[in-house]
Write a structure and sequence with these properties.
The protein has 200 residues and is an alpha+beta fold. Helix content is 45%, strand content 15%.
């Protein structure tokens, strides 16, 4: 738990931002180029660079479209943009290829045990616990409890193009496990909070 009201809402409400994310993913898919150079180009557009890093394979109309979207979008260097980008990509793959799996956007997240939560904290929360509180939960009233290995998603990077990223993301939705899995639960339904617990 956290006192930050919107911590769990990783999707930005800005239409321009979501359109930029969607178009960036489509550009990687269409031109077969990694996500990173597309993002760097858009960062340059937002900063007003006179020499933006434009991948040579992208056609001029698409470059102009990305420039227009980037100009009106949430700052890409903000961590909120990054979280929204990855969740949009995971959801894009799920809705297209594994629609029977629960949406991450519509789910609560929980760790299966304290060891898993501590590993997640160490890998993702640079401020360690910060204002966050760990507690036990009762999920008996949850209609959905989907288990997957978050390590699989951690292996998806900007250096990949869409198809390479898609292959890893499908492993997550297919519930494949890495050599050292860190299991997370996607929960939908009523969750009852229990006693606080302390992480080492």
């Amino acid at each position: 738990m956290t006192t930050a009201v919107n911590y769990g809402n990783r999707m930005l409400a800005s239409k321009a931002t979501n359109d930029l994310i969607r178009t960036t993913i489509d550009t990687s898919k269409r031109y077969g180029i990694p996500i990173q150079p597309i993002i760097l180009m858009c960062v340059d557009f937002q900063s007003g660079s006179h020499q933006p890093r434009i991948p040579r394979l992208i056609a001029s109309p698409r470059v102009r479209e990305l420039k227009s979207l980037a100009t009106n979008a949430h700052p890409i260097t903000d961590g909120i943009f990054s979280a929204s980008f990855w969740e949009y990509l995971y959801e894009h793959v799920r809705s297209a290829d594994r629609p029977a799996c629960p949406s991450r956007i519509e789910s609560y997240f929980a760790s299966k045990d304290l060891t898993s939560l501590a590993r997640y904290r160490d890998n993702h929360w640079h401020d360690k616990m910060g204002d966050k509180t760990a507690c036990q939960i009762n999920i008996e009233a949850c209609q959905v409890a989907f288990e997957a290995d978050m390590v699989v998603l951690d292996r998806v990077t900007e250096e990949m193009d869409f198809e390479s990223a898609r292959a890893h993301i499908l492993k997550y939705w297919d519930q494949e496990m890495s050599d050292e899995p860190n299991i997370e639960l996607l929960l939908q339904g009523t969750i009852v909070l229990g006693d606080k617990v302390q992480l080492n």
